[in-house]
From TrEMBL:
Tagged with keyword Transmembrane helix: no
Protein name: GntR family transcriptional regulator
InterPro entries: Bact_HTH_transcr_reg, Tscrpt_reg_HTH_GntR, WH-like_DNA-bd_sf, WH_DNA-bd_sf
Pfam family of the protein (one): GntR
This protein's record includes keyword Isomerase: no
SUPFAM superfamilies: Winged helix' DNA-binding domain
Keyword terms: DNA-binding, Transcription, Transcription regulation
Domain HTH gntR-type, chain residue ranges per copy: 5-73
Length: 78
């Protein structure tokens, strides 16, 4: 039986795909955790885990009281 990834990892991978596809370009603000939880039909904590894992890898930037943004990759090599 194949191993199913935890939901937070599936959400993280989906967000990465949306960033790569340009749906969320560098510098753009992501929807709130509440809206993402509604979109993915899951809990706020599951969304936070996905977002936090991306923040830890500098893929996203969290700004307290403002929101979560896609990291600006302008300084990185293609």
């Amino acid at each position: 039986m194949p191993y199913a990834q935890p939901l937070w990892r599936q959400i993280r991978d989906d967000l990465r795909a949306k960033i790569k596809a340009g749906i969320y370009p560098p510098g753009s603000k992501l929807p709130s955790a509440r809206l993402l939880a509604e979109e993915y039909d899951t809990s706020h904590m599951t969304i936070r885990r996905a977002l936090d894992s991306m923040i830890e890898r500098d893929e996203l930037v969290g700004r307290t009281g403002i929101g979560v943004f896609v990291a600006d990759d302008s300084g990185q090599n293609p």
